[in-house]
Amino acid sequence: MLQFCEQLEDSFINADNARKMCNLADWTSYFAWDLLSEITWSGAMGFTKTGSDIKKMSPIGKFSVMYLRLCHGSQSSSASNPYRLKTVDAVVDTEKSGLGPKNGHIASFLEAQKAYPDVVTNDNIVMHILTNDRFLATTTLFKVAAMLFRRYNVGLDELGQEWELRRHWMVYNDKTRVRIARYSVPV
């Protein structure tokens, strides 16, 4: 987290473009995706390194989960998900897919699948990946945003405003201009 804060400070406070607007919603989302990727796949996806979404990963993850929710997450419907096969391939052969060695959180599921193939199926693993990456990234995002507010002493009460996640706020501190934008979460 400290390294992430230092990267934001270098990009938006200490740099030549110190008055540039920082979309905190995007940056906290990037950090959350990378953190969960590190835990799940044992390697960051590179969102914070590039400062942008990579290969439309965020919307693809969002819509994959929405698709599964619309289909009630049944075993047969998840097999028809167009992203399912690519995800299974990446899980089974992470080194070939460029995701690094198989020592992340997902490795324990692969070991369980070898021991109990009738109980732990590819569909179970894919559902876990999508649920873990999407929903834990969302809750992590809100926690990271709260930590950033605390670190930079950004107090909405000082501005006479209340914290509400469903609105857009412009928040200022003494060094930089920070935009706190709404992060849409499917309900």
Automatic annotation (TrEMBL):
It comes from the Eukaryota. GO terms for molecular function: methyltransferase activity. Keywords: Methyltransferase, Transferase. GO terms for biological process: methylation. This is Putative pisatin demethylase.
